[in-house]
Design a protein that fits this description.
about 230 residues, mainly alpha, single chain, about 0% strand
């Protein structure tokens, strides 16, 4: 592909940096060789101030050169943006919108088909308490319908197996209520089992309290009767 942008003229910059570098080396080496004492500290401070002043002057020139170099480029960039890049970006944005719209419509149809399959298979298995959202099926453009339907089927099959297990439990009605909230069969069974164990423990404690109270009452009554019997 041939060059579409041609630089016709480059900025001509004469800086004499090499010549300036020799003078800077001399001054820097001299400054570093100075030994600071109470007698010459003012002199050293002045040397430092002079070096900083010179450097500040050179920095100002550098910034000016930079502005002069960048000015033509910034002007070029504005022209390039107006005639080239904005047009490419506009086309890209337009095509992206069209592509996204088409893909989103296709994805929506794809997901609707999966939802319909989910509902049909759910009804076929006599399940009425789960929703499509709970299956968390990630419908993407690249995913095949077969794999997506298999995810839906596996989710419902697991629910069916869980319900069969719940039917074998002692407190199946209570477990089913708990299960419908979490869809975690192990957790539901454990929660309900522990709940009934706790209830039984409380009943035992209550019975023991009543039994102890009855024994106490009988003992007290026995003592009262014993004390009330006249001695001849």
């Amino acid at each position: 592909m041939q060059d579409l942008i041609i630089v016709k003229q480059l900025p001509q910059i004469e800086e004499h940096l090499k010549e300036l570098s020799i003078d800077v080396d001399t001054k820097v080496e001299y400054a570093k060789s100075l030994i600071c004492t109470d007698e010459n500290i003012k002199t050293i401070k002045q040397v430092r101030a002079d070096l900083n002043k010179e450097f500040k002057g050179v920095e100002q020139q550098r910034k000016l050169v930079k502005e002069q170099i960048l000015a033509p480029y910034m002007k070029f960039e504005d022209v390039y943006k107006q005639y080239i890049s904005d047009k490419y970006k506009s086309a890209d944005s337009d095509l992206k919108t069209k592509i996204d719209l088409t893909e989103n419509e296709f994805k929506a149809k794809k997901e609707q088909e999966i939802k319909d399959y989910f509902e049909e298979y759910k009804i076929a298995n006599n399940i009425d308490f789960i929703t499509y959202g709970q299956a968390r099926i990630n419908v993407t453009l690249s995913a095949s319908m077969k794999s997506l339907k298999e995810q839906a089927k596996q989710f419902i099959d697991k629910i069916t197996d869980d319900l069969k297990l719940i039917e074998t439990q002692e407190h199946k009605a209570e477990i089913l209520v708990e299960y419908k909230q979490t869809l975690n069969v192990a957790q539901a069974i454990t929660t309900v089992t522990n709940r009934f164990k706790a209830i039984e423990e409380e009943k035992k404690k209550e019975w023991q309290k009543k039994n102890d109270m009855n024994i106490f009452k009988r003992e007290v009554l026995g003592k009262v009767l014993l004390n009330s019997i006249p001695i001849f």
